[in-house]
């Protein structure tokens, strides 16, 4: 034979068409579109005669860009969005992982660049993993973290126990994941005491207070950088 002709096409469009010396054994196609199906043809030329063979290949799809995860102020939802990658996309696989367990596994069509996850745990830290799929081939994974807002405590009880300088505070633990509680005692808009309470505890007390004074209690649930609040109020006993 005299030489080879290699060509590369996508659908009916020929992208590359090049003659190679008969000693050639390989050729690399570059600058192709991610996630695209191509047909490569190799034609053997000998005088006026030729014979050819073809093979189909698929480039790896590109990963999504600017993956963002936000709770939008909710205790049980996360909203994720991304920028569509270059090239061809059939669909996206979107995973939600909590404490190393996959709890959501969704397939999202290629014309969508966002997803809303519901029924999540308040205060939970989640990883969202998005993978581009094209021709059954997966891109590199893109990962972003997001946390739901923690829930507020319920059943707040403030009691002076008949004492003039003392208030006890108790509550029912917040549902979901909690890092700690902060209990603030204030009067007339001014903070009197602040206590940080372990998540395993649901009560605290304040001493050396002023008799007959009305105090406001704020219980803040903390999880990561997010928080939620509940309130109570009580007056110390008179001397």
TrEMBL record:
The UniProt entry, under InterPro entries, shows: FN3_dom, FN3_sf, Ig-like_fold, RTP_Phos/Ushers
A GO CC term assigned to this protein in UniProt:
receptor complex
Q: Where is the Fibronectin type-III domain?
A: 149-239
Quote the Pfam families the UniProt record gives: fn3
What is a single molecular function from GO for this protein? cadherin binding
What's a single GO BP term from this record?
angiogenesis
Write down what this protein is called: Fibronectin type-III domain-containing protein
Organism listed in the record: Micrurus lemniscatus lemniscatus
């Amino acid at each position: 034979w005299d030489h080879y002709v290699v060509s590369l096409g996508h659908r009916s469009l020929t992208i590359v068409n090049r003659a190679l010396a008969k000693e050639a054994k390989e050729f690399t196609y570059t600058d192709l579109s991610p996630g695209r199906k191509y047909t490569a043809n190799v034609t053997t030329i000998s005088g006026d005669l030729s014979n050819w063979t073809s093979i189909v290949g698929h480039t790896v799809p590109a990963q999504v860009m600017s993956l963002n995860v936000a709770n939008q102020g909710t205790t049980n939802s996360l909203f994720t969005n991304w920028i569509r990658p270059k090239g061809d996309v059939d669909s996206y696989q979107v995973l939600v992982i909590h404490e190393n367990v996959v709890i959501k596994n969704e397939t999202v069509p290629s014309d969508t660049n966002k997803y809303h996850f519901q029924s999540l745990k308040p205060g939970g830290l989640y990883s969202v993993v998005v993978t581009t799929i094209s021709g059954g081939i997966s891109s590199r994974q893109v990962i972003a973290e997001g946390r739901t807002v923690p829930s507020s405590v319920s059943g707040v009880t403030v009691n002076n126990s008949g004492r003039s300088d003392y208030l006890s505070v108790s509550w029912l633990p917040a549902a979901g994941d909690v890092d700690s509680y902060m209990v603030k005692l204030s009067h007339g808009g001014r903070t009197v005491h602040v206590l940080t309470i372990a998540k395993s505890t649901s009560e605290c007390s304040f001493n050396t207070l002023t008799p007959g004074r009305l105090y406001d209690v704020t219980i803040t649930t903390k999880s990561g950088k997010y928080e939620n609040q509940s309130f109570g109020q009580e007056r110390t006993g008179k001397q």
